[in-house]
Amino acid sequence: MIKRNMARRQAPEGEDIKSIKKILREIGTKKIPVHEFINLISPYTADNGALLRLVLAEDVDAFQKLARKVYETMTEDVSDVLVNEQLHMMEFYQEKRDIYLNKMMAAINEIYDMAPEFDFDRYIREKDQYLHRILPFPVIGEVRDEEGNEMMKRQQAYHRLQWLRSEGERLNEENKRLMNRLDQLKELQRVEQQKMTDMAERAEAKRMQLTQEERIKKDELEQLNQSVSKSFVETETEIKKEYNMMGIQPPEEEPKKKKKLKVKRPAWISEAAVEIEDVGVKEAIASERNAMPPPVRLPVALQSCRTCPADQGGRGLPFRQPQGGFGADRRPPRQMETNIEKAQATIQIRRPQPEPSRGRRVQGPKETWGGFN
């Protein structure tokens, strides 16, 4: 515990020991370059790997100095040896060139000795024809050797026989292989035919069984139909006998009556609503008439005056007493009368027409609605 605490205190700030240990465990025994190792460790160190890179640079410089001291003389010696070898090789090839050049000149001199007019350009273009023209070769006749010919024929026949024997053995082996393959295919064919035969026999047996069952079912169905027909006939006969004995004919079926379609009458609520709206409009008109201001009565001294005093501009404004006196009743304005007429016309249009009665008295909305009690 003390050692662990001391290690944590000695670790600089910003250094992640756990991550570094994790990287070391992952690397293990793997061989990686030093700069890659430094790049992996640097993010988890306090100085982002600056010290590691400095140490790496110093090690590289020291190694370069050591390499110069140790290998500089060695490289100089090797270069000197290679230079000497190159010089010796150049001398060797120069000597060989001189030798081949001398041989070539000797051959050319020999050619000119045998053919003084020899043309190398025509020889390059024509070759064999030019040589036959300049230096014709003598034709040597063929020497026939009967014994040699016989030996050649025997040798040819022997090799032919050996080839035929080897070919016969190969064909025999191929024939045996093909016969074995044929036997295998025949066996497979026999097995497949046996399987198909068994399947056909099973299918035929199944078909015969189904045919037998079908025949039995048909017989049962025929018997059932006959028994049903017989029972129908017997039942009909018994019914007829009973009716004949009782002297009663079978009741006839009454024709079905068609249902009459009832016409749905309009609900009385719409008519009641129209009546209520009509009453509301009339009450509104009456309230507007009652809310009108009373007529203004002037003093007695001004009732006989035909004109009023002049205004500030000096002009006199005519003032006439309305017809019937100031105390007479006034009618509502023309606009109010027009609105009342429009409301009454709207009520008359929206009021539904009563339907004619169909055998039963139709009750009106006034007879059915009891009002707001």
Automatic annotation (TrEMBL):
Keywords annotated in UniProt: Coiled coil
Claim: Coiled coil is one of the keywords in the record: yes
Stretches of the chain forming a coiled coil according to its record: 161-227
Top-rank lineage group of the source organism: Eukaryota
Region (Disordered): 312-373
Protein name in the entry: Uncharacterized protein
